[in-house]
Amino acid sequence: MPEDHQVEPEFIRKVGEKEARKLHAQANVTQTVWSGLGMMGLVGWSVAVPTLLGAALGIWLDKSHPGSHSWTLMLLVIGLGLGCFNAWHWVAKEDREIHEQERNIDE
């Protein structure tokens, strides 16, 4: 029977921690929704802008310095790669911050 008394406080502690996380999440719901939508826009623009700038520069180079290779295609792909890398970097940073906040709540 003494084991039941030891298990019970552990159970109560775990339930309390889960409840604290849920209450914290409920308090930040609107912030999370808007920050999520903002992050989607940020990721979209971080990919679109370098891609379009690369294409525009490529078009200008193709008109100014025609050659056997397509500057437009090459710079469009480079811009797309840079944009994807930039978006990946921002998403990874946000993910680290979210996990850091969760660890701080658990402590």
List keywords for this structure.
single chain; 107 residues; mainly alpha; 92% helix
Question: Could you please describe the fold and organization of this structure?
Answer:
It is built from three helices and no strands. α2 (29-64) runs antiparallel to α3. 92% of the residues lie in helices and 0% in strands. It has helices at residues 2-27, 29-64, 71-106. It has one domain (2-106). With 107 residues, the protein is mainly α. The model has no long low-confidence stretch (mean pLDDT 81).
Question: Could you provide a short overview of the structure?
Answer:
The chain has 107 residues and is mostly helical. It has one domain. 92% of the residues lie in helices and 0% in strands.
The domain tally reads: 1
Question: Which sheet architecture does the biggest sheet show?
Answer: none
Helix content: over 70%
Name the beta content range.
under 5%
Q: Roughly how many Å is the radius of gyration?
A: 25 Å
Q: Please mark out the parts with pLDDT under 50 across 5 or more consecutive residues, or reply none.
A: none
Task: Summarize the topology.
Layout: H1 2-27, H2 29-64, H3 71-106
